[in-house]
Design goal:
single chain, 305 residues, alpha+beta, Beta-Lactamase, Alpha-Beta Plaits, 9 helices, 38% helix, 24% strand
């Protein structure tokens, strides 16, 4: 799992800018047994134990409902919403002071909540402290999770995170897509411009992807000329739009190396998680097949499977 939970509570909800706007933290066991029962069916045993201490409730009747984007999308779309945000130590009660600056990162999972008529009229806000995970992500020089040459996450780290995201997306019926990307004819570039020229291409492409992708996406070097991107909450059509943007930018890049200009292109295979997928490797296998199709059809193109 990405997260750890320490039992610390927010002051109110403190949504994306310390907005203490929810109806208030309630004792679900004592005061709302009906809600407690419904929450218990949604969460694992460990999540439920923590949720009894940390969940908050809001509904469309709340005066600030329209301002709370995460709540509104969860209720209107009947879908899990995940947001990450940073809080100062003054906004957290009972938080361990493991951050030198006294700040803590949280990931909030906002769950739609059915009433007894199976209508979605409210949602719960379930915060989990992810400060340690954020610290690990910031340690880009840690060779256990990053590629030495490009600074992108490595294959091992990507597979760990993707397996977890796959399980979450399957459980809550969220969209999830993968981009498998290859630098076309990297060996030819190496032969023409030397290993340093090929390395310059890999580094420049990494910079391009980090600047183009969203904060919620996960980008990694998958080995050799290959890269991979996880796109949470994204169907194949949305993935194709992102892929084409990256492909078009890469095609126009000119890299100056030892007084020579290097140009390169990329091929991309796209796969969306399907309801029939039993494990995360099924999505990766389709993405691998898709990039193979892109290569045999001439390269510098996108294929979806």
């Amino acid at each position: 799992m990405w997260q750890y939970a320490d039992g610390a509570l927010h002051r109110g909800a403190l949504l994306l800018g310390a907005l203490a706007l929810v109806a208030g933290c309630v004792n679900y066991q004592a005061n709302r047994p009906d809600v407690a029962e419904r929450v218990q069916t949604m969460l694992s045993e460990n999540e439920y134990t923590l949720a009894l201490q940390t969940i908050e409730l809001v509904s469309p009747s709340h005066p600030d409902y329209k301002r709370l984007t995460g709540w509104r999308e969860t209720i209107e779309k009947n879908a899990l919403k995940i947001v990450e945000y940073l809080l100062g130590s003054e906004d957290i009660a009972g938080s361990p002071q493991d951050n030198p600056k006294g700040r803590q990162w949280y990931q909030a999972r906002i769950y739609p909540l059915k009433d007894h008529n199976s209508a979605i009229n409210s949602a719960i806000w379930f915060p989990i402290n992810i400060t340690q995970r954020k610290y690990l992500e910031d340690q880009v020089t840690d060779l256990s999770v990053t590629d030495r040459l490009t600074g992108a996450f490595n294959r091992k780290y990507f597979l760990q995170i993707f397996e977890n995201e796959f399980a979450i997306s399957k459980r809550y019926n969220n969209k999830l897509s993968i981009l498998h990307i290859a630098i076309d004819k990297l060996q030819t570039i190496n032969d023409t411009y030397g290993q340093a020229g090929g390395d310059a291409v890999l580094k420049r492409f990494t910079t391009l992807c980090k600047a183009t992708l969203r904060d919620s996406d996960l980008f990694a070097r998958f080995g050799g000329a290959g890269f991979i991107v996880m796109l949470p909450g994204t169907p194949s059509l949305g993935a194709a739009i992102i892929a084409e943007r990256i492909r078009a930018i890469a095609e126009d890049i000119q890299i100056t190396h030892e007084e020579e200009t290097i140009q390169f292109a990329i091929s991309i295979g796209i796969s969306q998680m399907l309801e029939s997928d039993k494990n995360s490797s099924a999505v990766l296998t389709r993405a691998d097949s898709a990039i193979y199709q892109a290569k045999i059809k001439g390269r510098n193109r996108i294929e979806i499977l």
